[in-house]
Fold this sequence. Notes:
The first copy, chain A, is α+β, with helices and mostly antiparallel strands. Chain A has eight helices and 18 strands.
Amino acid sequence: MKNSIGTSITMxxxxxxxxxxxxxxxxxxxxxxxxxxxxxxxRLSQRRPSGPADTARVEQDRFxxxxxxxxxRTTGTPLVILIPNENVRSADYSQLRHVARPSHADYxxxxxxxxxxxxxxxxxxxxxxxxxxxxxxxxxxxALAARGIRxxxxxLRCGGAEDAPFTxxxxxxxxxxxxxxxxxxxxxxxxxxxxxxxxxxxxxIGGVIQTGVCGLPAGLGEPWFDSLEGVLSRxxxxxxxxxxxxxxxxxxxxxxxxxxxxxxxxxxxxxxxxSTNRSGGINGGITNGMPVIFNMxxxxxxxxxxxxxxxxxTAGKDVDLSLTGRHDPAIxxxxxxxxxxxxxxxxxxxxxxxxGTDYLTAL
Amino acid sequence: MKNSIGTSITMxxxxxxxxxxxxxxxxxxxxxxxxxxxxxxxRLSQRRPSGPADTARVEQDRFxxxxxxxxxRTTGTPLVILIPNENVRSADYSQLRHVARPSHADYxxxxxxxxxxxxxxxxxxxxxxxxxxxxxxxxxxxALAARGIRxxxxxLRCGGAEDAPFTxxxxxxxxxxxxxxxxxxxxxxxxxxxxxxxxxxxxxIGGVIQTGVCGLPAGLGEPWFDSLEGVLSRxxxxxxxxxxxxxxxxxxxxxxxxxxxxxxxxxxxxxxxxSTNRSGGINGGITNGMPVIFNMxxxxxxxxxxxxxxxxxTAGKDVDLSLTGRHDPAIxxxxxxxxxxxxxxxxxxxxxxxxGTDYLTAL
Amino acid sequence: MKNSIGTSITMxxxxxxxxxxxxxxxxxxxxxxxxxxxxxxxRLSQRRPSGPADTARVEQDRFxxxxxxxxxRTTGTPLVILIPNENVRSADYSQLRHVARPSHADYxxxxxxxxxxxxxxxxxxxxxxxxxxxxxxxxxxxALAARGIRxxxxxLRCGGAEDAPFTxxxxxxxxxxxxxxxxxxxxxxxxxxxxxxxxxxxxxIGGVIQTGVCGLPAGLGEPWFDSLEGVLSRxxxxxxxxxxxxxxxxxxxxxxxxxxxxxxxxxxxxxxxxSTNRSGGINGGITNGMPVIFNMxxxxxxxxxxxxxxxxxTAGKDVDLSLTGRHDPAIxxxxxxxxxxxxxxxxxxxxxxxxGTDYLTAL
Amino acid sequence: MKNSIGTSITMxxxxxxxxxxxxxxxxxxxxxxxxxxxxxxxRLSQRRPSGPADTARVEQDRFxxxxxxxxxRTTGTPLVILIPNENVRSADYSQLRHVARPSHADYxxxxxxxxxxxxxxxxxxxxxxxxxxxxxxxxxxxALAARGIRxxxxxLRCGGAEDAPFTxxxxxxxxxxxxxxxxxxxxxxxxxxxxxxxxxxxxxIGGVIQTGVCGLPAGLGEPWFDSLEGVLSRxxxxxxxxxxxxxxxxxxxxxxxxxxxxxxxxxxxxxxxxSTNRSGGINGGITNGMPVIFNMxxxxxxxxxxxxxxxxxTAGKDVDLSLTGRHDPAIxxxxxxxxxxxxxxxxxxxxxxxxGTDYLTAL
Lengths: 363, 363, 363, 363
């Protein structure tokens, strides 16, 4: 399943940046879940470019529920959401037919698809495809919330600005939802300034984002190849801009002694908790009931206007490349709702595997 | 497939630390591949405790080829390797029946298996299970080598010592193979001293390891959920001690501008190469023909002799825990051949998916 | 993957009879395959009701290529075909909200989806969904034909009429393609008369269909759970009307001695052949190079106008049911292109698994 | 997963007829299920040759529980059962290295594995592999029985003898369990005589077997590719000797009108039932709560002593073949416990998918 993820609940992505539409199939979802179109639209709007710090290509993201929804609820059969492409300017990309943008997928797509790939706007590799993830994730997010499970992603570090890490998650999610950028502390202006500075210099910047999940039962995940870390990692690396992931204290654990790194277990109000959470809520691949927390490295957007060295892979020669299209100087703000959505889909699948296909249904 | 990984070639792990045996099923491998028992034994010996810096539980790792091998070659049908458990001292672990080792899987196993799990020596969560991975990976490693694909893992950072990162890979693999510890530079004594110091203090240490792969064709991997980064991550997070992974410059990319992070493409001897490799050989989830390089954070071993705070999860009360069994003060040396083996299995699967089931067969 | 089939190439179905559209995702197909819209339309027209022997609900089956096609060829990324629903008369089905049509999926859908299923026109269980299979299969059929592999399905037995079984396949496919009904012999009038007689009596009829495949290489399939028989069976039982399948002489083999049932191998023009083909081209789950031939039992359409005994499953009481909608008195003609399409998709997947993802690409 | 079946619970087969052992991995089974070694041994003994009507190769089928069992119960981690091969006479098979037994897998294995397959005793294609299925299935069978779900398989037709079809299932299972052959009526002598007559003439016979399942909840299975018919078919076609399957009235439905074929729904003691069961308990791929009943065609064993025409596929020439090894003149008796076991594994998987991984655990 090349463009699919999941076992009991599966998500399949399709579409090209400049084709008729992008979209998603969400199969195996419990029947009877509310499908709240306003909430889907809200989440899509958070992924959408919306200011001087984003690309000038703005779409309405009007979406169509093609199947799997009846009278406002999921039917239990495949749910398809179609998001037509609008505001397409293919001419911008014509030069990229044979010229590889450095650190982009142009060359690797050529090697994989032998020139038959749709090159317009990155084709199937476009960030545009993530709109389908966001739409599908919004339905899953509300299903999880009904079970007391909350998921959010914020910018932890970008352009010199540093956000507070998740600790309590629930209250921090509230803070994030109230801001224009997904951050806990009041660092929006700082981030925006850094992005605009990069844009000014025809450049781009990256950063680190952090996802927190609270309310998950202990006992989710598998010992070896379906460790929750493994399953979540596979999901988030779908996003080309993500180049690293760490759970809990992550790479910081490499510098600690066991006595400093271990999370002591304690009883609290009759529940088992840990007094620290350097494991990020996962031991041996399985949730321990503490918040699941992980960080991801987001590289700077590879499409920049500065002149770069590259090759014309059809002609087989070195060339210079100066991009003229509309590009994001940073995707770090827009990537947060995508990661949240991905995680929501993965967690619904994990819960369905463990507790059955009707677990999320309000019966 | 809970303890399995792969699509065309699949690996399934089984066994408990103190049961009759641990082992592995490797299914879908091309027929006709040499099965070199001496090489398997060599790789197993590199995973085995072997000095004062390791656990005192040493096993011979005698293995039995149960199926899938005929006249010294793979048949193409499921290959099973059984590694009987020896030198088992279950009494050591009796106290752990209800007491959760901090940051270990004791508590999460309880929540998942409701007390039916085998608690002796960590049961199915034991690092002992990785012997099966190493045995299976050794066969895959030789199959890859026959195609010019080389894989190795070394300690990049541990206890203050810093190794050279992979650059050329091929020559560096030679250096690693010649040493007592998997390192490129002469830092073995430094690492060993750090491990022994931790042991002396009834503590443990972690570190960072790095895997390099060279010789892979461009075009391997998929755009979204089967990105090579996603597939490799899912594999390595099978190992409980790994808490982070980053490809190429990874988290370092978060601090760079696009103009600093992008890898310029260049023509070299008629081939497309990049003049830097901050992407770790992967663009858009797909190999670009440069070495695939990634780092992993290894947390300090959670089983330490120091007294720790924890809970008795059956009694539901706080207790102190002083472990008395035989434990590794560091697994960082032993984890390297395990990761190499995992990666070899994953890559054989990727090649079989792309080029067919007979690709690795010497026809 | 609940509505998906395949490993290297996967097909996912979606849609409801009276929703906006039905459709299909075909993922993993080789890049560069021609997408012949006229041929897709032709195959769809063969599935479409077209005379007095079919339902009065006729749709144009206008289809839209949403993704995965660029400049008339497959890109290698997910190919989505959308077939909007037209000519929908939902009022016909309102009574079925709580009343189970005997031998139809109304009651089982209720037990599975708890009343959240779309009941209009059978919802996701409607035969209308098979339009997606036919569209996807048409692309695969032409890809196979380019490799010399031909697939066809004909009515073997219906309403007293008996067709000639496949022997040579290639020439017989020619005969089938030339007729109004998928039959080899001139028995169309006979079948049509039988269907109309059943319709006249407010009843329905079934029959036996036969699929033949020629040109497959020997060595396709797996020894146990991915035997070609198992893979094909799983595919065709997707169609609710099919209640039996037999390969080669099938149930007839149960009456024979081994000496009568075995197919002697012979050398012919340097190739290994069998002088009979009672095995249907498959030994031990794997193709032997002879035509793959199998028969399927098609039950009479369960939706009939005659008054039938059933239950109102919401009220929990016995009721009588007299259907008034538009129904097929027989689906046997329309099911043939669906089975052919399914088999084409399955075989493309088998070939891609064995020979790699580019096997079908014209490079 | 080439030798595996299942999604939440998976079964993987391994081993060769003349290798060290055959065996099975059963992964994903609920923790806490009793593992009754005497019952496993009983089911294995029913698969074992045991009289003049069977092969002279008799093994004790001593089995070893390698993993996944602790204190007599499943742990929830992979359960491996190893059944060592004994009584091996490889010399018998040496002639088959290059000579294809008609309708056996010798030639197709050669085409698939290029001569690297283990040819001794049929290698991985040997019926011996089914011992693993029976052992795994015995554990599942008892887990199902604890939930009131019963599965049995009997000979419906063989050598002119005709058994009673399943109607009540529960009481009929009792009758079958009490007999020397798996039959409901007293037709053992008749079948045995037919088998011995075939043996006398150096020939073999087949027949038809029937499986019945009672106690399944309604709502199990999926609308399209995971229809229960599809899932069960894929499982039983793993057995090379099975060449056809039909559910309920199966091929007989092809001759009926809808009014004759449909099963009227009725209320009975507050439950929905059907007054007939020509659908075999499945509508639209999903269980309706009635017994699931299906028939399978078993071809006569292909290995017969009579001289047969075939080819030497290495030399590429026609040859005559007179087998001298030990072979079953009929496998129909021995195949019944294998099919029952397969069905038990498949149903446990279906239940775990629907109701969660702990559904079968006695918590």
